[in-house]
Input
Amino acid sequence: MPDLLLELFCEEIPARMQAAAADSLKKLVTDALVERGLVYEGAKAFVTPRRLALAVHGLPAQQPDTHEERKGPRVGAPQGAIDGFLKAAGLTSLDQAKIVSDPKKGDSYVAHIHKHGRPTPEVIGEIVPAIIRAFPWPKSMRWGKASAQPGALRWVRPLQSILCTFGPETEEPEIVAFDVDGITAGDVTRGHRFLNPGPIKVRRLEDWMAKLEAAHVVADRERRKDIILNDAKDLALAQGLELVEDAGLLEEICGLVEWPVVLMGAFDPAFLDVPDEVIRATIRANQKCFVLRDPATGRLANRFILVSNLIASDGGAAIIAGNERVIRARLSDAKFFWETDKKTNATVSLEDRLAKFGNVTFHEKLGSQLERIRRIAVLAHVIGRTIGADPDLAEQAALYAKSDLRTEVVGEFPEVQGLMGRYYAELEGLDPAIAAAAEDHYKPQGPTDRVPTAPVSVAVALADKLDTLVGFWAIDEKPTGSKDPYALRRAALGVVRMVIENKIRVELLGLIAFGLMGVAGSAANAAEIAALRQDLGAIIDDRSSVETYVAKLEDRLELYRQAVGIFKGAANGTYDKAIEVAEDLLAFFADRLKVHLREAGARHDLVDAVFALPGQDDLLLVVKRVEALSRFLSSEDGKTLLAGTKRAANILRIEEKKDGHSYEGGIDAGLLAEPEERALADALTALRPQIEAALAAEDFEGAMALMARLRAPVDAFFEKVTVNAEDAALRQNRLRLLAEIRALTRTVADFDRIEG
Output
C-alpha cells in the first residue's frame, strides 16, 4: 500500500518546541486522514533543529466510495421543498429519486446518493496546507514581503521548503500538488547546514533517511539521543570516569544538533573546591555540557562532555578550547561566590541573616519574607510537637531553612537553593537535623520527587507548604482551572505524600487554624492570638487517649471559628474573605488525596464516602478507612450490605422528603411486629457498641467485619417486611429502623456516596 512522506524545512525549530511539534503534526495529519476515510497502518514523526517530518505507512490509493440514503419531502409537497431536496441530494430531477411508502406518513421521496472516493493525493493536498497554516506553535512569526499581506503565513521560523511524496514502494512516488504562500511542494530537501547544505532529491521514507544520513543529518530524534548518550559514556569510560546522566539536558542537546559529535574538555582541578552541584549547575546552564564523576571518590572530576553539531577539521580542538575558556570564567565566578559566602556566614548571626528578609516582599497581601519565615517557624514548632520531632529544633531549622536565598551562590544559581542551605549549615557546625531540613524543606516538588523522612525535615516541609496554602486561600488566590501560578496543587500533594508515606498523624484543621492565626497575627490582637495558640496546642498535645482527643473536636472547631473571627476583624482590612477557609482548604486536600489514591488504584468514590464523615482531617486515617472499605466492598458480604443500605437510604430519602421530617431518633421495641424486624433491631443494638469500640481503636478492618454481620438480618428484613405499612405507627417505626441502619453504617462511611 502507498506511503506518505511529508517534510517541512525551515530556518530553525527551537529545541523546547520540537517534541510537541512532532506530536502535533502526527496527530493533526492522521486525524484528518481518518476523518476522510483514509485509514493507515502506522505513522511516525521526525524532528530536527531544521525540519519537521511525518511518514504515514499503509494508506489506500483513494478514499472508499460512500453510499447515503437521504429522505426528502412527501409526494405532492410544494415545489420549493422539492427543489431544495434535489439540490441538497445532487439530483437533476425526481426521476432519480425513489418513492417509499409509510403507513403513517404516506409516500415520500428518497435519494440514494453514491459518491466516488477521491484519490488520496488530492485529499492530502487539501489537508496539509490547512494544517500548515493553522499549526499550533507557541510562538510564530511572519517574514518577507508577503508578511504585510492579510492572512500571511505564520510559522515558528521562516519556512523554506515543503517535501511531500505519495506512492507504493514498488513504484516511483508522485509529488503531492499544493503550495503554501508561494512555497510549492516538491521532492527536494537539504542536508546539514554546514557539512552538506546542497539540495537532495528523495523518493520515500527509507530513501529520505538514508540520503539525509549521507548528508550528515540524523533525522530520528531517539537515535540522536542514543548516539550522544553512548558516545559520552564511551569517552568517560576511556578516562576511567562515569557520565552523570541528565535526561533533561540530553533532550535539550538533542534538539540543538543534527549531526552529534561528542567531545571531552577539562577545567582546573582547583575549581573542585566548589560544591559539585554548583559546578554542575554552572556547566549545565551556561554551556549545555554534561559533567563526569570519579568513581573512586564519588565526586565530580575536572572533565566535561560537550556535543558539537559538526565535524571539525582539527578534531574539535578549537571547539573544546572555546568551551573550556567560557567554563573557566563561569567557574571562577562560582568559586568567588562560594568563598564570599563562606566568609560572610562565618561572621553573620542568624538574626542578622533573617533581617535581610525584612525588605523582601513575599506577597503584597501576605507580608514580607521575614514575616513568612517567622510564621513557618511557629507552625513547625507545633507540627514538631504533633509528629514527635524536637519542636525547638524544628523551629530553629525553619528560621534557618531559607537563609541561603540571600547568598551569592543561590543568587547566581537559584536551582541550588535548599542544597546550599545544607552546605552552609554544615560549615557553621549546626545540628545535622537543621542542615537536612534546609535541603529538604522544599521537597517533594513533584509526584516522583523524594519525600523528606527525618522528623525535623518533615515538620519544616509541612509548615512551609501549609503556610503557603493557608495564606493564598485566605486572600482568595486559589487555583482555577488549569491556572495555578503559585503551585498550590503541588504543595497540597506534597503534604498528602509526606503524611501518607511517613505514616504520620496530623490533624489538618487544627494546623490550618494555626496558620490562619499566623497570617492574621500582624493585624490582630497579639494577646488573643497567643492565647488561642496555647489552647489549641494543648488540645493537639493531649494524646492521653483517642476518646479524649475525639471529645475535644468541637472545642477545636470553636477555636478555629474564633481564629476566623480575629482574622475577619483585622484592623487594616487587607483580608476580606476568611469565612470557611479551613473547610474549603480541607476539601482541596481531599481532591489532591483522591488524585493520589486514584493513581495508586483506589476508587475516588470511597474517598468521598469517608471524607463525608465529620472531622475527617487526619489524612492517614482517611487512607486506612478507604483501604479497609475497599477490601470490605470487594467481598460478597460487602456488596450485598451496600445494596441493602442503599435501598434503606433511598426509601428514607423519599419518605423524609414526602413527610417533611427526619426519622432519626430511635425505635420503639414494642412496635416490632415481625420476627425479621426484631432480629434486625437486635443486631443493630448488639453491634453498635462493638463497631464504635473498633472505630475508636482505629481497627477499621474489625469494624468492617462486624458490619458484615448486618447482611443477613438486612436481607431478611427487606424480603419479609413491608416498610410502608398501612398502620402509621408501624410505618414510622420501620422507617426509624432504616434510619438506624443508615446511622450505623455512616460511622464507617457515607454509603450513599459509593457507586454501585
